[in-house]
């Protein structure tokens, strides 16, 4: 495959920075480009999946939507890493808390991801592969979050294959019991693809819902109000 790829319309590798921030929502990518980046230029809008490259405090960085779920997002992860020579992808997204002490608008940094997804079933035999982010980038993000005074939790996340899941209550209880912090939908795929290509990845989340208290944030906040998460990702994004 050559560039532009079927899903990214950038005609040159130079149009995309070495680090790409990736929310699921393309409108969140647009919001970041318009409110955080200087001299932002659009490099793709194929299928409505906006991507921009600009500068944050003099550092060149890109931001692009990934769509929702592992199958959609893995298309973009593969093409960015493999065809555009991107070095680092930082997933920024909303998540549902699975623990009582993790509240709305808290930050979660993923140390690993579990999933019911079958994407790795044919790769590792009877071994249940557990993909992880880049440790140095994770450590830097945690230190920066403490410096910024953010309420931040580190631990395993669940990358669900279904948004409207009918999970067995016992399974949910066990995930809670064994310390899974929250549920989202893409990191299991991101960490797997990053490990495949020897690249770096990180997952940074804002809690938008609580599966414990049944609280939920507005659609408007989900798109534009999670500025702590955006700032943290931009601060630690490698050049």
From TrEMBL:
Site location (Important for catalytic activity): 222
SUPFAM superfamilies recorded: Purine and uridine phosphorylases
Top EC group: transferase
Catalytic activity field: a purine 2'-deoxy-D-ribonucleoside + phosphate = a purine nucleobase + 2-deoxy-alpha-D-ribose 1-phosphate; uridine + phosphate = alpha-D-ribose 1-phosphate + uracil; a purine D-ribonucleoside + phosphate = a purine nucleobase + alpha-D-ribose 1-phosphate
Active site (record annotation): 209 (proton donor)
Pfam families: PNP_UDP_1
GO molecular function: purine-nucleoside phosphorylase activity; uridine phosphorylase activity
Enzyme Commission numbers on file: 2.4.2.1
Binding site for a purine D-ribonucleoside: 7, 184-186, 208-209
Keyword Metal-binding in record: no
GO cellular component: cytosol
Subunit structure: Homohexamer; trimer of homodimers.
Family indicated by similarity: Belongs to the PNP/UDP phosphorylase family.
Protein name, as recorded: Purine nucleoside phosphorylase DeoD-type
Source lineage: Bacteria, Bacillati, Bacillota, Tissierellia, Tissierellales
